[in-house]
Amino acid sequence: MSDSRFPTERLSPNASAAIYRAQYEARQLNHSYVGQEHLLVGLLHDQQSTASRALAEADLPRERVRAVYETLIGAGEQQASEGEPLEFAPRLTRAMDLAIDEARRLNHYDVGTAHLLIGLIREGSGAASLLLSRTDVGPDKVREAAVAILEADTTREPWLRRYQLTLPNHLFEGVQWIARREDVTLLEVLRRFVKLGLLVDEISERQGASLIIREADGSEREVLLI
C-alpha cells in the first residue's frame, strides 16, 4: 500500500485476511495491481464476515457477486512474478481511506470488513460499485445493511477513549525513563500501559526490550516494549 497512510494496525483479523485474499485474486487473474474488484470478492470469501452478513441482510447472495465478477473482470496478459509486490490502485486506496472515516464516524477503533465494504461503495466511481450495480440489489441497499449492522454493534473497542490517570512520583519517573529510552512521548508510554490494563506500583528493567511490572499486591509480569 505504498502511498496510502492507511493504519494497518487497526485492521481486524478478518479485514487483514480479506486484503490478503484480494492480492490472491489479483494474481489469479494475472493483474499487476490490487483493485476494488479484488477486495470486494476478498471481503466476501469468508461467509462469516460482517461484510458477508451485510450482503445476506440485503438479500444479495455472495455467489451472485462472484458470478458478476467472473463475467466482467478479465484476465491480464502477463503474470506478476511471485515475489513482486502488487500496487494498490488509487481508487482502492481512496476507498480504504473512506473505510477509516467510516470507522471514525462510528467511533470504532478497528477497521473491519463491513467498514471496508462501505468504503468501496462510498468511493462510488470504482469497480466495486459497478459490480454491485450489475446485481438485482445494487450498492445502496448493501451499504444500508452494512451501516445498520455496525451501528447495532456495541462490542467494538471505541476509536477514542478518555482516561484520567494519577501517578505517584516514582512511577512517573519510571514512565519518563521508558519514554527517553524508547524515544517516544510520555503519552505513548501511558497508552501502552492503559491498553495492557496495567495498574503498576513499580517499574524495573530486564535485559532486552522488556520491563518487569510489579503490581501493588507483589505480583510481577514481564511486558515487551513493542
Could you describe the 3D structure shown?
The protein is mostly helical. The protein folds into two domains: 8-152, Clp, N-terminal domain (Double Clp-N motif, Orthogonal Bundle), CATH 1.10.1780.10; 169-224, no CATH class. It is built from ten helices and five strands. A three-stranded antiparallel beta sheet has the order 3-4-5. The protein is globular.
The CATH homologous superfamily of the largest domain is termed Clp, N-terminal domain
CA-atom Rg in angstroms: 22 Å
Pairing-aware structural class of the strands and helices? mainly alpha
CATH level-1 class of the largest domain:
Mainly Alpha
Please report the total strand number as a whole number.
5
With helices defined by DSSP (H or I, 4 residues minimum), what is the helix count?
10
